[in-house]
Amino acid sequence: MKDQFASYFEKPEFKRTLASYEEMLSSGDTRYFEATELTDVAEYYAMNGDSQRAEAALDYALRLHPDNLDALIFKARARLINGHLNEALNIAETITDQHDREVLFLKAELALANQQHNIASNILRALLESEGYEAETYTDIIDLLVDNKQTDMANDWLEEALARHPKKKILMESAAYSYAQQERFDEAIELYNQLLDMDAYSTLYWEELGKIHFLREEYDKAIDAFEFSIAINGDSNYYSIYAAANSYFNIGNYESALEYYQRLHKVYPETVDPLFHMGMCCVNGGNDDQAMEYFTQALATVAEGSEEQAQIYSQLSLIFSRKAQHEKAISYVDEALKIIPDNTELIIMKGHELLCQGRHNESTEIFLDALTMNAQHAERSLFLIGVSMLENNYYEVGYHIMRLLKENPAIEDELLYPYLCLCEWVLRESDFRHTLTTSLNISPRKTYEIFNLPLVQGESVDAMIERLNKIEDKIKGSNL
After folding, report:
1. Phi then psi dihedrals of residue 90, to 5 deg
2. What are the backbone dihedrals phi and psi of residue 264, each rounded to the nearest 5 degrees, phi first?
3. How many whole angstroms separate alpha carbon 352 and alpha carbon 360?
4. Largest Cα–Cα separation, the chain
5. Cα 160 from chain centroid?
6. Rounded to a whole number, what is the distance in angstroms from the first to the last CA of the chain?
7. What is the pLDDT of residues 130-142, one digit of tens each?
8. Helices (H), 35-68
9. pTM, rounded to two decimals
10. Angstrom distance (rounded) from CA 38 to CA 31
11. CA torsion through residues 191, 197, 203, 206, sign
């Protein structure tokens, strides 16, 4: 999911800067930009995992503004993140003002990366003393240490800071952030709730609280937090709308998730993620035709040859497979494989489509290719092949595969047991009742889905078996 910077990067003024910069790259000409504009572009690329483009934007900033402090600091940090500590140190040494506050923080960060913890502590201690032990200075130091995974040092500074400035809001924020990063979630939640008692209209606190509940898979609580944030800031709060949509999606409330993704798409129409997820909501809600419309729209906005494009092609392949249009399904999975040729799941998808057409030799060859591509970790591939066998009514083969994978730590029981149940039901295995009991305990939604039954909360195993027997009797009766 996108972080809080995403909302800024969706604003028209930034999009104009980015478009102008990328037009310049395409045309090969040169244009003037302010240093802050180029560092924003670099931040955008960095946030999207494109460190090469981020550094190129910084290099251009330094061509235009060779002594710009922010660009030099950003460049040094970029070199550090990319594993070039010595280059980062050299850049830091070229900065004219070695006593600038941000430069001191950079030097402390570089010392930490160089395992020179005492030097980093001395730099930070001197800065703290020069700024009169202000709570804000403690906060910046603690955040730096947390971001650099120095949790023990951060906790020491935090204890000192809170002793000097008890109940100072800015330090409580820093402590809550630190605890969250350390996965001390109960303490972080307690602090954010205290902060909300001080300021109930802080979207930052609601968002951070929502993030913690999301990480803990407490999606109902996450939704409450994100919806409070949305109520305060409305459609300008990109992160909370997206996070609320994802939370609803994760609990299977695809209708509410779709509403939020649609809301996001309306405000940020050029962003591909909402369109893709709108399609996924429709897929999971059983509306394949509407899903195809959203995926087709998403294809018009996604970058050619990108991983996102491959994901959309694979979803379109699955839709056509469900429509029994297997040749068309193969054509889309082939398009996805052009982008990610070594993806074993896509290869198995193609094998599945061939099997659906009765092209047994071709499908077997492709399945074997998928298994040998990653022979040391072939369990996932074997599981997907087993599912394909079951969907094509080869229950004996599917059951053999599922039994091989039973209790294999590489395959989660929540995935395996519903399919194991189906095999044992169809093949009349004596273990069926026991397996169904386990499956309903660990994966009730998937179990009902596999048997194509509406989920009934709290239904007993005997009641479910009775329903299955009635359905089977109806099928037998209709075939007489």
Report:
1. -65, -40
2. -65, -45
3. 10
4. 92
5. 36
6. 54
7. 999 999 999 999 9
8. 35-47, 51-64
9. 0.74
10. 11
11. positive
Task: Please report, for residues 5, 89, 142, the alpha-carbon distance to residue 76 in angstroms, rounded to integers and kept in the order given.
Answer: 21, 7, 21
Q: DSSP code of 303?
A: P
Contact 171, 161 (CB under 8 A): yes
Buried b / exposed e over 304-322, threshold 16 CB at 10 Å, is eeeebbbbbbbbbbbbbbe
Which one-letter amino acid corresponds to residue 452? N
Q: Which of 449, 380, 379, 457 is nearest to 421 (CA)?
A: 449
**Spatial distance between the Cα atoms of 415 and 383, rounded to a whole number of angstroms:** 9
Question: In the block, which residue shows the tokens 């609320």?
Answer: 244
> What type of residue sits at position 26?
S
Structure tokens at 378: 């072939």
Contact yes or no for 258/274 (Cβ under 8 A): no
Q: What is the pLDDT of residues 187-214, one digit of tens each?
A: 999 999 999 999 999 999 999 999 999 9
Between CA 94 and CA 92 the distance in angstroms is 5
Is the distance from CB of 292 to CB of 320 less than 8 angstroms? no
